[in-house]
């Protein structure tokens, strides 16, 4: 039987990524051109620059992927791309490239939701068992999702203000750490020999929603007050207190959801799933509650195209293809 080889493209934010995934499991190549260095100097992603760089990198990355996999376009089964959500100018570059390829090759075309991609990144390495609770945490998303079965999503909680990764990056900037601040705060928190007690936003007792702007403001006000008094605050203590608050709220709500919904698995996904402290806390909580816990390896946590290939395979199995009149959807819902 011929393997199903999906070429997947992801350009929703600041990574130009192309992958070829076989049968939804085997990653033949996973090419990424990161624009981190470019955006670092601005302290965040500049949309205009991001889309221009995607244009410059796209054909190079595509050729690299095919060359590295020793495949030609005729060896492929389908072309997949992130349809949304994301930055419109960035999405458009990937969508246009993918449509052109599909039109030229006459291969089936598959539009994928970015968050479905983050979730199914787990299928590259794990068996998923349903029902499950997915905790999706990234620079743009903070969601608790109930998945009754494969392909079904019910958002049971989400952030009311900042996404977790966004809060990490803002606090990172306040601590004068390089962009993105997430990994740096994670490292500082792990090394810290002290902490600063910070608030936790639990919201209503039965709510699965999140709020991180108050926590972020608390950090800012501690730093500002110290500055006015001419005192210094140890950055690793701030990082430790901030990360402790984030992890406490995320893991407490995720575990409560897993129990209430009778989840047979807890799944972690998104860029912040790379966080060592969060992985550790959920590993321990899930072991105590006897709920299997899965998360992707580091390379599949932050934005990549292999996860889009994995999510597209699901649609391939259902033969649920997308028309070439598909439009990028910057605010697409799951
Ligand atoms: O999934 P992703 O690559 O892009 C979005 O779809 O948003 O996530 C990027 C986010 C950034 O905010 C970054 O700071 C955060 O993931 N991140 C981390 C860690 N590694 C990446 N946050 C906390 N700890 C980490 N180790
Ligand atoms: Zn993402």
From TrEMBL:
Recite the UniProt keywords alphabetically. Answer: Acyltransferase, Cytoplasm, Iron, Metal-binding, Transferase, tRNA processing
Which reaction is recorded as catalysed by this protein? L-threonylcarbamoyladenylate + adenosine(37) in tRNA = N(6)-L-threonylcarbamoyladenosine(37) in tRNA + AMP + H(+)
Q: Which domain of life is it from?
A: Bacteria
* Cellular localization per UniProt: Cytoplasm
Name the EC number(s): 2.3.1.234
Primary residence? cytoplasm
Which Pfam families does the UniProt entry name for this protein?
Answer: TsaD
Chain ranges of the Gcp-like domain: 27-309
Name the cofactor(s) required for activity, per the record. Answer: Fe(2+)
Q: Name the CDD domains for this protein.
A: ASKHA_NBD_TsaD_bac
Q: Which residues bind Fe cation?
A: 114, 118, 303
Membrane-spanning intervals of the chain: none
Residue positions binding substrate? 136-140, 169, 182, 186, 275
GO terms for molecular function, please? tRNA N(6)-L-threonylcarbamoyladenine synthase activity
What binding details are noted for the cofactor? Binds 1 Fe(2+) ion per subunit.
What family is reported? Answer: Belongs to the KAE1 / TsaD family.
Instruction: Tell me the function of this protein.
Output: Required for the formation of a threonylcarbamoyl group on adenosine at position 37 (t(6)A37) in tRNAs that read codons beginning with adenine. Is involved in the transfer of the threonylcarbamoyl moiety of threonylcarbamoyl-AMP (TC-AMP) to the N6 group of A37, together with TsaE and TsaB. TsaD likely plays a direct catalytic role in this reaction.
Q: What is this protein called?
A: tRNA N6-adenosine threonylcarbamoyltransferase
Organism listed in the record: Marinicrinis sediminis
> What's the gene?
tsaD
